[in-house]
Amino acid sequence: MREKYQIEIENRIKNFEGGYAFSAVDFADIADTDPTNKSLSRLNESGTIRRIIQGVYDKPVYSELLNEYSSPKVEKVVEALARKFNWTVAPAGETALNYLHMSTQVSNSWSYISDGPYRKYEIGSYTIEFKHCANKEISGKSFLTVSVIQALKFIGKANIQKEDIERLSFSIPSGQKQKVLEESKTTTSWIYKAIKEACK
User: Fold this and answer.
1) What beta strand segments (E) does the chain contain?
2) Which of 72, 76, 93, 105 is 20 to 30 A away from residue 120, measured at CA?
3) Residue 14 sits in which domain range?
């Protein structure tokens, strides 16, 4: 006979969208960590869910076209890790450019900054890297604002072009421009100047 908590965990997973990633912390209101981990392990063995890395699972999506399960959604895994460790995260480097649609380059390496420790994870052919940053770089700012700052930092003051400002302007929703402008006031002066131009 299945425990009540196990039924509740299974029901919650049924309601997750395909590709959603999660860990025991996402069921903390249902059961303690140890029984939850045992339940997730059983569901993984039965093929209901898929273990991606230690302690993180997803609800896999079957691709009829490829006739196999699709690869884990990296951004969903990142969100699950952020919840699991209570990190604040945001994309950095090329990942920030991709998030803002300022680059079409496809990379196997995903880079993030966080207020947690340095961590690196291998998921199939992908690498997810979390670099520690000072709290002032990330706290009190939205995911979008930090992404914009990180994208500009990656391009660099000497390399930034008019086209980059135009792409950035297009990438920031009109309704969010004032918020991004306000939140980025304390950043490096050349980055703030570029953001001001993009938010005109």
Assistant:
1) 21-22, 50-53, 56-58, 62-63, 68-69, 89-91, 109-114, 119-123, 126-132
2) 105
3) 4-69
- Asked if residue 90 lies in contact with residue 147, where contact means CB atoms within 8 angstroms, the answer is yes
Identity of the amino acid at 159: N
Q: Is 126 part of any domain?
A: no
* Site of tokens 């920030």: 96
pLDDT tens for 128-178 read 999 999 888 888 899 999 999 999 999 999 999 999 999 999 999 999 999
Domains in the chain: how many in total?
2
pTM for this predicted structure: 0.88
- Give the whole-angstrom CA distance, residue 136 versus residue 45: 43
| b/e 157-188 (16+ beta carbons within 10 angstroms → b) | eeebeeebbebbeebbeeebeebbbebbeebe
Q: Which two tokens stand for residue 79?
A: 């969100």
What is the phi/psi pair of residue 40, to 5°? -65, -40
Structure tokens at 114: 């966080």
